Amino acid sequence: MREYQFPRYSFSGFFFTLIALLLLPSLFGDDFGFVHKLIWSASLLACLWLVTHNRQILIIGSILALPCFVINWDVFLTNTVSISIAYHLFTITFLLFITTHLLRFVIIAKKVNSDLIFASLCAYLLVALVWSRIYLLIELFVPGSFSIDVTLFHSAEEIAAIFTYYSFVTISTLGYGDIAPITQLARSWAAMEAILGQLYLAIVVARLMGLYIGSELTKKNVSDD
Q: Can you tell me the mean pLDDT for 158-175?
């Protein structure tokens, strides 16, 4: 099978962009919303960069990403529930589209290298981001699904950030308890994320170890010959 090619250094760049999305906006106080929009846009571009090796996939990805860019920067200058729902649905679809290609690379890779490690990490972070948008949709459809009052936040970016925090706490099964699902729907999705997070780590670590041991045995056999 032909190796699934990606642009060089794209995985590491994307990984550090996602880390910046988690850490940097909180350092800017009153400019939190603008910085969050800026880094989130950079993250979307980094996602697209991952599929520039295939023109057809790039076109599909660009079509999915365009509404995310447009609504992210409030081009319509509206903040209705219907626009928010559409935005989160497009974001989930786009992130799942990129995650699928990352996982395909992880599955068919034949050796352990930095690209494979960063691709595995990026897929894990993307799953958490997808779930954060699912939580936002749940809260939009069923207000009060979580033990937080979203009306206390000043912007959509702050709400997105708090659900992103909750998603990472859940997928890592850390569970501080400061935010909790209240409705059965929210609890079901939270439980599914926790299970998926643990399964992902177990499967990917086993995959990486298997590839590493296999490559070392191959090297040993070659040297013995």
A: 91
